[in-house]
Write a structure and sequence with these properties.
alpha+beta, five-stranded mixed beta sheet, three-stranded antiparallel beta sheet, 46% helix, binds protoporphyrin IX containing FE, oxidoreductase, heme binding, Cyt_P450_CS, oxidoreductase activity, acting on paired donors, with incorporation or reduction of molecular oxygen
């Protein structure tokens, strides 16, 4: 990347490709979205999408360019604009609701340096592998319960609904100290928070509303805030050894963390940590079903499980994008990005980039190194990555010895979501070991 000195014309992405990359429904069909990404990587790795109803944006599809942008959080901001893609009407709705901001949430993803670093440091140590590793026994208990539940289906079930969906939520909620009876509410709110574009996830009163996703997001956020306000109050009065207590009692520049910032933190962790992980677990099993030599390898040698976890996350890439905003004119991948231009980082595309991954559509747990960017890159790189990988490793360690074979019992179904997506359903038939 170099400071820009020369003007170049902006390559405009063909309309049907631009629409495909932006539309939530494309992400429910791997063939559609990955074809579009492949075309872009080959023909226009940095191109501008001009789609009716949206502000123009650069679509960034190559692994190297995504890393280049994300590693420099001063040149490319998250918070000057919405770091999540929205149409103009939805952003206008959010601005109206927040009194001018398109962010609406004081969480890490909506912060830039130097404030971002200050807030990230509050919990960075807690999420390091050394600290997280101490939770292994606690997490294993939850994994064993989930596997027991799965095996109770005796041969046929939905891998998402009956297995993968609940475990990561239970882990996060246990670490937070949230009582198990509140978990269904947390699950529902997260699905509304991320799934507003999918008609099956929308609240009834919002069907057919053009800004349904923004409204769902706002309504879910309000419910989250009410819930966490009460819990944070409890933890201030009676501190426990949990993450909620750590955040609720944090201080920035000597002053207690604000209500919005504390709630922003809780919501980020509560929402970021489970749909992503459960989709990656499901993707791991789907990958082994489609490419069964991997199943055999894991059965023969459990030491392959860390490779399975990384490949599951790469192949699934449950986070479809984050946006960045250029703070000055700058060149990336041979294109001149102008100050205030918006860029969409397409992680699933970077994770199928032929320049980095051999035969990238293949599910292969022996890839080494597996330099995927499903967790993003640079200062905003996923805070919970070590926890996600630990949870997944433990779950597969507990599950795999109990199944002798597994196959699809129906077509997999993916969520219609251009932000956080993944599996809605994976019907499976299995034989116990
Ligand atoms: C950020 C992916 C699990 C908490 C992110 C980002 C991605 C991501 C792509 C944005 C990175 C960037 O902007 O460069 C994933 C995936 C997961 C996962 C694929 C599971 C397989 C988790 C878990 C937690 C978590 C388990 C917490 C318990 C966060 C937080 C951020 C974040 C707080 C914001 C970090 C920041 O802006 O500084 N994640 N995540 N994630 N993730 Fe995750």
């Amino acid at each position: 990347m170099a400071s820009a000195t020369r003007a170049t014309s902006r390559p405009i992405i063909p309309q049907h490709i631009a629409e495909t990359v932006i539309a939530a429904r494309s992400y429910a069909d791997d063939a559609v979205i990955y074809d579009a990404f492949k075309w872009l990587r080959e023909n226009m790795p940095l191109g501008v999408a001009e789609v009716e109803g949206f502000d123009p944006m650069w679509i960034v599809t190559r692994h190297a360019d995504i890393r280049e942008v994300e590693k420099n959080a001063k040149l490319f901001h998250n918070a000057d604009f919405n770091p999540v893609l929205n149409d103009r009407a939805s952003d206008d709705f959010t601005r109206e609701m927040t009194g001018g901001s398109v962010s609406g949430l004081a969480s890490l993803t909506y912060m830039d340096p130097p404030v971002h670093q200050q807030y990230r440091m509050l919990t960075a140590n807690w999420f390091l592998p050394g600290k997280i590793g101490k939770l292994e026994d606690q997490i294993r208990v939850l994994a064993k319960q989930s596997v027991e539940h799965f095996l109770s289906f005796d041969g046929e079930c939905d891998f998402v609904r009956d297995f993968a969906l609940h475990y990561p939520l239970r882990v996060i909620m246990t670490l937070f100290g949230v009582p198990p009876e509140d978990e269904p509410k947390m699950l529902k709110l997260t699905q509304e928070f991320f799934g507003g574009h999918d008609p099956e996830e929308q609240r009834d009163e919002m069907k057919d509303d053009p800004v349904a996703a923004a409204k769902m997001w706002a309504a879910a956020l309000e419910d989250f805030f009410q819930y966490f306000d009460a819990l944070a109050e409890k933890r201030r009065a009676e501190p426990q050894d949990d993450l909620l207590t750590l955040i609720a009692n944090s201080r920035i520049n000597g002053a207690p963390i604000g209500r919005d910032e504390a709630n922003g933190y809780f919501v980020a962790i509560a929402t970021a940590g489970h749909d992503t992980t459960s989709s990656s677990v499901t993707g791991g099993m789907h990958g082994m079903i489609e490419f069964p030599e991997n199943f055999e390898k894991v059965k023969a040698d459990p030491a392959m499980i860390p490779g399975l976890v990384d490949e599951a996350i790469r192949w699934t890439s449950p986070v479809k994008h984050f946006m960045r905003n250029a703070t000055q004119d700058v060149e990336v991948g041979g294109q001149l990005i102008r100050s205030m231009d918006r860029l969409m980082m397409c992680y699933p595309s970077g994770n199928r980039d032929e320049a980095v991954f051999d035969d990238p559509d293949r599910f292969d747990i022996t890839r080494s190194p597996n330099k995927h960017i499903a967790f993003g890159f640079g200062p905003h790189m996923c805070l919970g990555q070590h926890l996600a990988k630990l949870e997944m490793r433990i779950l597969f360690e507990e599950l795999m010895p109990h199944i002798a074979s597994i196959e699809l019992a129906g077509p997999p179904k993916l969520v219609e979501a251009n932000f956080v997506g993944g599996y809605k359903s994976l019907p499976v038939r299995f034989r116990k070991a």
